[in-house]
Amino acid sequence: MKFDSPIAVKEIAALTGAKLVGNESLMATGINEIHKVEPGDISFVDFEKYYNKCLQSAATIIIINKEVEVPEGKALLVTDDPFSAYVSLVKRYRPFAPFRSAISDTAVIGEGTLIAPNVAIGDHVRIGENCIIQPNVTIYDHTIIGDNVVIHAGTVIGADAFYFKKRANREVMYDKLVSCGRTIIESDVEIGANCTIDKGVSGDTIIGRGTKLDNMVHVGHGTVIGKNCLFAAQVGIGGKVTIEDNVILWGQVGVNKDLTIGKGAVVLGMSGVGGSLEGGKTYFGAPAIEARDKWKEIALVSRIPEMWEKLKS
């Protein structure tokens, strides 16, 4: 998320109650997670094993729970609970705003776009030309949609990320990392009925040009999908996944978080993708492996009763 205007790091320190260490003249231009940060961004880290990754990232201002050596030109905001400090900044600079009308006065809708009854469009949404938005679609704030996009009935674009921090010894154990990212749907995309596409936690969820989603597909927060992909019904994709161009996921494929599926890969129905897959190959199984290897495995397993009988005789 980018701020409307730069904010002094001293102001950020005062808002969070954190100790400011390092360059006190910095201006923050945005807030983001480690894997999405750009110069000027604020990020946070609260596990020591991730300290170095965050400190050496592009982030300019880092909220951290231990005073450590400050990288040159950066600033640290030291606090016991960086997670809560980060959330407090999101709530201040991207506060929750309820829907006040079916289509927000701040939404921009291109020429030739058709909006069916019972569609809800939030604040600062931009929709391109010649789109078709079918009944009961909900498009959350700050979503960007290109030209010639079709969204079928009941789909939700831009709901919050499924991202929680577990807190020990509490009756309510999970604290929500409040989302302030966006969803970007590029031109010539078609999205089926009853799909759910979550916004990024602080960056963007992106669906590339020409990609087609069947009914009941879920796309997790911060996932980036390339051009001309094809996803069949009931595909579920975790957060922060990268899917390159021309990938096909057949029905009921499940994709774990934080992985990459390479260009031109095909994953057959009911497979479970637990790790990154190379492009240009066909996969099957749970966990998914190359399909030809899986067929060999299935053939061998089917022969176990026969082999067992031979061993007994």
N- and C-termini, Cα separation: 70 Å
CATH topology type of the largest domain? UDP N-Acetylglucosamine Acyltransferase, domain 1
Number of domains: 2
DSSP helix fraction: 10-25%
CATH H level of the largest domain: which superfamily? Hexapeptide repeat proteins
Output mean pLDDT.
96
Taking all Cα atoms into account, the compactness measure Rg is 23 Å
Q: Note the total helix count.
A: 5
Low-pLDDT runs of 5+ residues are none
In CATH's first tier, which class of the largest domain applies? Mainly Beta
Number of E strands:
34
**Which geometry do the CA atoms define?**
globular
List the strand order in the largest sheet: 8-11-14-19-22-25-28-31-33-34
Secondary-structure class:
alpha/beta
Query: DSSP strand (E) fraction?
Result: 25-35%
Compact description:
The protein is an alpha/beta fold.
